[in-house]
Amino acid sequence: MPVMETENSNTSRAEQLKQQANDAFKGHKYSQAIDLYTQAIELNSKNAVYFANRAFAHTKLEEYGSAIQDGTKAIEIDPRYSKGYYRRGAAYLAMGKFKDALKDFQQVKKLCPNEPDASKKLKECEKAVMKLKFEEAIAVPESQKRLVADSIDYHTVEVEPQYTGARIEGDVVTLDFVKKMLDDFKNQKNLHKRYAYQIVLQTREILRALPSLVDIVVPEGKHITVCGDVHGQFYDLLNIFELNGLPSEDNPYLFNGDFVDRGSFSVEVILTLFAFMCMCPSAIYLTRGNHESKSMNKIYGFEGEVRSKLSEIFVELFAEVFCCLPLAHVINGKVFVVHGGLFSVDGVKLSDIRAIDRFCEPPEEGLMCEALWSDPQPQPGRGPSKRGVGLAFGGDVTKRFLQENNLDLIVRSHEVKDEGYEIEHDGKLITVFSAPNYCDQMGNKGAFIRFEAPDMKPNIVTFSAVPHPDVKPMAYANNFLRMFS
C-alpha cells in the first residue's frame, strides 16, 4: 500500500478511535477513554486534540501530572490551540499551582479574546492568585505561631437552651452520644460547636501521643477491618457500619486516609471517626491521607464546609489535628497499611517511618510525601507519578520492601477502583477504596478488608453506594475549581 494511503487509513482509524474515546468519556469510563485516545495517538501523533482530550480524561482520574504532560504536548503540536492551555491550566489548578494555571489561562484569553467563558475563568484564576499572595503576605512564621488548639477551652462554650441535638455529659464520649450524633447527622442537623470542640481536642491528645508508625496487635480469634478513602461520603460510611457493625474494642477499624474533601458531608465523616476514637481509642485507627492537608482542603471543599457548618476557627483546628495523624500502621507485624505507597529509595525500614517528624504540613518530597502520594505501577522499577507528586513503584519494589521488613502484605488506598479494590504485585499489594460511586459519577463499588488473627488472610467485602440527600459533591469547594471540573 502506498505511504499516502497508509497515512490516510491511519488518520481515518485514529478519528474513529477518538470518537469511541469520546463516547467512553461521556459514559464516565475514563480509563477506557485514555486507552482509546492513546491508540489514536499511536496512529496519528500530530493531532493536538487527541492529547487535549486525553488530558481531560486524566484530570477526571486525578492524574494531574499526566494531564499536564498531555496539555504540554498539545501546545507543542499547535501553539495556537487554546484547549491545550485550558486543559493544562485546569490540571495546574487542581494541584494548587495557581501561578502556573494563571499563565495558561492568560494564554487562553489571548487566543480567544471574545470568548466570555475564557474571561470568566481568567478572572477566577486571578482572584485565586491574589488571595494566595495576600495569605502569604500576612502569614505568621511557623516559629511564632500559637496553636489554636491551645487557646480553646470547650468547657466555657455555652450551649443554648433551644439546642436539641446530641450532648456529651461531662468529659466522656459515650456510645449513646455517638449514636444520637449519627442520627442527627443522618437528618442533616449540625452538632453544637461546644461538643465539636471537645471531640476534636480530645482526638488531638490521643493522636499526639502516637508514633508516626503505629503497631496494632489483633489477638488470636479477633479481627480488624481496614477501610480506604471515604472522601466525605457520610451515608456510605453509615452503610459500612450497617454491613460490618459499629467500631468497638471487639470490632476495631483502621481508616486509611482521605476522610474528607470531594464529598459534601466531610464534617459529619470526620466528627464521626474522631468521636469513635474518643469513645474507645482501640476501636478506631486513622492514617493520614494526602487530603488531610491545608492545600487540598482549601481546594476540594473541606475548608468551605467547615466554615459553613462550624466556624473559621475550626479550619485551623482541623489542620493542626491532621498534622498529628500517624503515617502508617503495621498489623500483627505482617500487614503494612499506608495511604499512598512506597518510596523512591530502597532500604527504607519501619524504624525510618517511625522516626519521621510528622507534625507538619506534608512536604513536596521525601518519605512522608511518598507515603501519602505514591501509586503502584504494573512494570518493575520506579517511574514518574501520574499525579505529578510522589512516584510510581513496581512489584519488585514492593517485594524488596516486604522482605527487608519481614512483612507479608501492603494495603494502600488513594485510588478509585471499579470493584472497590485491586490486587497487584503478585498478590503482595492490595488497594482498597471505600467511597462507592465516587463523586456521584464514577459508578465504582466500595470495599473494606477484614483480617482475622492469627492467619491474617484478607477477606474483601464489596458494597454499592446508597442514596444521600441532594447535596452535590464539591458543593463547598472553591468556585473557581468547580468551574473547571
From TrEMBL:
PANTHER family: SERINE/THREONINE-PROTEIN PHOSPHATASE 5-RELATED, SERINE_THREONINE-PROTEIN PHOSPHATASE 5
Pfam families in UniProt: Metallophos (PF00149), PPP5 (PF08321), TPR_1 (PF00515)
Catalytic residue positions: H291
Membrane topology category: Multi-pass membrane protein
UniProt cross-references to CDD domains, sorted A to Z: MPP_PP5_C
Cofactor(s) needed: Mn(2+)
Localization annotation: Cytoplasm; Endoplasmic reticulum membrane; Nucleus membrane; Nucleus speckle
Residue windows of the TPR repeats: 14-47, 48-81, 82-115
Entry-linked Gene3D superfamilies: 3.60.21.10, Tetratricopeptide repeat domain
MF terms (GO), sorted A to Z: metal ion binding; protein serine/threonine phosphatase activity
Catalytic activity: O-phospho-L-seryl-[protein] + H2O = L-seryl-[protein] + phosphate; O-phospho-L-threonyl-[protein] + H2O = L-threonyl-[protein] + phosphate
EC number: 3.1.3.16
Protein name in UniProt: Serine/threonine-protein phosphatase 5
Location (main, coarse): cytoplasm
GO CC aspect terms: endoplasmic reticulum membrane; nuclear membrane; nuclear speck
Organism of provenance: Anisodus tanguticus
Alphabetically ordered keywords of this record: Cytoplasm, Endoplasmic reticulum, Hydrolase, Manganese, Membrane, Metal-binding, Nucleus, Protein phosphatase, Repeat, TPR repeat, Transmembrane, Transmembrane helix
Family of the protein in this entry: Belongs to the PPP phosphatase family. PP-5 (PP-T) subfamily.
InterPro entries membership: Calcineurin-like_PHP, Metallo-depent_PP-like, PP5_C, PPP_dom, PPP_phosphatase, Ser/Thr-sp_prot-phosphatase, TPR-like_helical_dom_sf, TPR_rpt
